[in-house]
Amino acid sequence: MAIPNHMYLLLKMPVPNEVLSIHGDIQTSHSCETENINTSEAMERSNNQALVAQAAKDLAKDQLRIPSNDSASGSQLHPDSQTKAIVLKATTPTRPP
Questions:
Q1: E strand or H helix at 50
Q2: Residue 75: what pLDDT?
Q3: Whole-prediction pTM value?
Q4: CB 13, CB 2: distance < 8 Å
Q5: What value, to the nearest 5°, has the Cα angle with vertex 92 and ends 89 and 94?
Q6: Does 29 fall in a domain?
Q7: Which residues does 73 contact at the CB level (< 8 Å), separation at least 6?
Q8: pLDDT given for residue 15 in this prediction
Q9: pLDDT under 70: residue ranges of the chain
Q10: Structural domain tally of the chain?
Q11: Residue 34 counted as domain residue
């Protein structure tokens, strides 16, 4: 049975008559972790694209339409009447000691 120690990047395994210690490298660990994250994100995007493509195939032809730019103006955000306006100055006030 191997015992990993993530804090010290150390893996200890029993072998006949001794304990084998394998030391890790922080740069290699970081690059492997970054590559794993990028690969999993790419796979997730690929799966999502396949699901969207399948959903589009399942829709009827009359349901497939691209929204016009006019519909975007109806979803614009508007300030709330209870929102307080704060005037920001270029200089910051001095703090008391």
A1: helix 26-58
A2: 61
A3: 0.43
A4: yes
A5: 140
A6: yes
A7: none
A8: 93
A9: 67, 69-76, 92-97
A10: 1
A11: yes
